[in-house]
Batch of 2 targets.
Target 1
Amino acid sequence: MRWALARVALAVTSMVALAFLIPLGFAIDHIAAQRALADAQARIAAIEPLLAVTTDRTQLQGALETMSDAQDIALRLPGGDVLGTSHTSAAQLAAVEAQRRAQTLAVPGGSVLVQPEVVDGGQTTVIEVFIDTGSTHEGVLRGWLILSGVALLLVAGSTLVADRLATRVVGAARHLAQASRKLGDGDTTVRVAADGPHELREAGDAFNAMADRVVHLLAAERELVADLSHRLRTPLTALRLNAQALGDVPAAASTRDAVAKLEQEVDQIIRTARGGTGNAGSCDLAAVVAERMAFWSALAEDQERPWHLVGTAGPVPVPVAAPELAAALDAVLGNVFRHTPEGTAFQVTVHQGQDSAAILVDDAGPGLDEPDRALRRGEGSGRVGSTGLGLDIVRKLAERAGGSLTVDRSPLGGAQVHFSFLMPPHAASPTSGQVARARRYARRGRE
């Protein structure tokens, strides 16, 4: 924008300068020609008194020799004698004598001012003053150069002034754009100083008001999420007490573990909502997958679901916090258990590439008729009990870590959910306990 305004100023001032420069240049040329003609008329005026006194050739010759620039003056006397160097032809002189008035005649090398003078006896003496081309254009080149220099200074000055004014405008617009990008990146503390033209100051004030409103809305949203999550504590407490009342039956332990896990997730939601930020960090994808499969394997055995766990033998670091990754995997596996009949087989595969890692969850269920719809937030797959939020949460987590989420047909016949993460260049290695657990559950899944 700055250079655009400077170019506009350059174009406009150049046109204005040319509009004045060209006429002034021709005016200088015309003035120089008029000055040369006036000098020639002054010479003629100096000779006319001499012709009024005498027409003697000798006296006139002596008078001409005393005059400056006598070589440019010629006298044609009544008898036909010529004093000096004549530049005109006999025909041109005859025409001038017949008209009896001064004329300017074009001749090679310039022009001649011819003035007929009637002397004693009614005879005519013709005075010629030669005006060479150099004298008619004397000073024209210097005048053109001066005008061009002035025009260049005016154009450069106006362009510089326009650039300075544009810098102020562009600077205010750039600051507003930078603040908008920071706000878009999540920095809700950014504000702009209202500067620049009136319109940009209004835009800056509107931006600050919008940022304040965003802060208030986010705070209200976090409080609402925290309040709603806190309401879950009451039914969770009742559920935990009921689970404890079950005694030592086989299902009681898994029920109590599930309730404890749910309480942890609710507490994490409340802390995240109050703090306004989510978990940050990295984890070992293979270890997290192995640990979550330890949880889901019990339910899979109860429902007689064949399952396999592949690829968790080694550490796979990803830039995602372990709780978030566990929640994403639980959302996908929960869909398998919720939307496929009991006894349906499934497989979880951890794939590690050169710079990315991925989790593939395949099932042998009926699959998804509209995979694209399942990825749209709030729509889901159209199945009963689907909120349409689970896969969207997984997608956002994968994209935040530089990966993606896709849903396709599984080689097992059902659906395949593939979500990937960009691996950090330097990630911490998992602990020996995590690796051991990953290998143990990997072997268990293959058995």
Target 2
Amino acid sequence: MLLETADHDYYAFAEGQETSALYAGAHMVSSLTQAHGMIRMHALSVEESAVFIGKVADEL
């Protein structure tokens, strides 16, 4: 999760199965922001996701 405060401070929150962390350091926030951007760039749209889910459900 990427967060920006009203004062334009940036934070990144990451959680896993057994841990979570809040990052405020510019280097880590930047790294996580770039990773999030890459994931978003490759993600399917809502419509594409619906078609994909439908195809997988039909194969079951």
